Amino acid sequence: METKDEADLCFPQLFNSSCKKPASPHSELVLLHIMLSSISVLTVVLNLLVIISVSHFMQLHTPTNILLLSLAVSDFLVGLLFMPVEIFRTTACWVFGDTICVFYCLLSSTIICVSVGQVVLISVDRYVAICHPLHYPTRITVPRIRLSVCLCWLCCALYSSYYVKDVLTQPGKSKSCYGECVLPLDQITLSVDAVLNFSITVAGIIVLYLRVFVVAVSQARAMRSLITADTVQVSLTLTRKKSELKAARTLGVLVVVYLICYCPLYCYALIGDSVISQSFVTVVIFSFYLNSCLNPVIYALFYPWFRRSIKHIVTLQILKPGSREVNILERDC
Predict the structure, then answer these.
(1) Cα 248 to the chain's mean position, in Å?
(2) What is the spatial distance between Cα 178 and Cα 9, in angstroms, rounded to a whole number?
C-alpha cells in the first residue's frame, strides 16, 4: 500500500531519488496561470497573423518587415511552447525525460538570445534609414537582411549551446532528483550572460536610438520649413521622410517595451533566488512572456497595413488568386 510520503513523490518507485510533486498552487499562482494561458493564446494568434501577413503579401517583403517577421517567429514559439511548458512545470512533475528537457533548455535560451538580436538589428535598420537615408537602399537590402536574420539565429543557437554544453553531453547529470527540468548555471555564467546578452546590447540600442532621435528632430524641423513648398519633388521627399519617421517612432516604441519587459528577467538572473520574493519572480515571468504578446499589438496600433492584412486573412481573401499582389499599403503615409 502506498504511504503518504510516497504519494507526494513524482516517481514513488525511485523513493530516494525522486522529486516531490509540486504543492497545490496558491491563489496568486492560479491567477498567474490563468493570465499566462490567455496571453499564450493571444500570442500565438497575433504573431501567426504577422507571420502570414509578411510572408503572403509581396508589398510587405521589405527589409524592416523581414526583421519583424523573424521577431514574430520567436514570439510565436514563446506562446506556443514556453508559456504552456512554464505552466506545466509549476503544476506537475517533468515526465518527458532528459532529452526533451535538454531540447527545451536549448530552445528557450536560443529564443531569448534571438529576441535580443532582432531588436539590435531593428535598431540598426532604423539608424541607417534615418541617419543615412541616401545609403539605405544600397546598404539595407532584402537579401542582406535575410542573411543577417539567418546568421542571428545560427549564432544564438551556437551561443546557447555553449551554456548548455554540460547538459547536452550528459543529460540529467546535474539534476538533483527525478521529475525536474532545470538548466544549471552558476552565478558567474549568469553574470557574463547578462553583460554580453543584455548590458552591452542595451547600451548599443540606446546609443543608436538617441542618434536616431536627434536626427529625426532635425528632419522634422526641416520638413516644417518646406511644408509651404508645392513642387512634386518636395512633396515626394516629405512623404518619404514622414514614412521613415513614423516607422522609427513605431519601432522605437517596440524597443522601449522590450527593454521594460526584459529588464526584470536579467535583474532576476543577476540577483538570484535567495534575496527576492516569490511575488517578484511572478512579475519577472509575467513581464517576460507579456512582451511576446505586446509586439503584434504595437503593429496593430501603429501599422494600418497590419490591420488591413488581418481583414484579408480573417475574411479568407488571401485564398483568392492574385491576392499576394494586393495593394496592402494603400493610403499609408
Answers:
(1) 18
(2) 10
Task: Supply the pTM of this predicted model.
Answer: 0.83
Q: Are 160 and 106 in contact (CB under 8 A)?
A: yes
DSSP 8-state symbol, 243: H
Residue at 253 is within a domain? yes
Average pLDDT over residues 255-280: 68
Q: Any residues with CB less than 8 A from the CB of 162 and at least 6 apart, and which? A: none
In a domain, 19, yes or no: no
Between 314 and 185, the higher pLDDT residue: 314
**For 269, phi and psi rounded to 5 degrees?**
-65, -35
Q: Please give the tally of structural domains in the chain.
A: 1
Cell output for 215: 536626427
DSSP letters for 249-302:
HHHHHHHHHHHHHHHHHHHHHHH-STTS-HHHHHHHHHHHHHHHHHHHHHHHHH
Alpha helices in 78-141 (DSSP H): 83-89, 97-131, 136-139
Q: What is the CATH number of the domain that holds 128?
A: 1.20.1070.10
pLDDT in tens, 277-300: 555 666 677 777 888 888 888 877
CA-CA-CA-CA torsion sign (314, 316, 318, 323): negative
Assess whether pLDDT exceeds 70 at residue 101. yes
Give residue 94's domain range. Answer: 25-172+192-320
Per-residue pLDDT tens digits for 158-206: 988 887 777 667 666 666 777 777 776 666 776 777 777 777 887 888 8
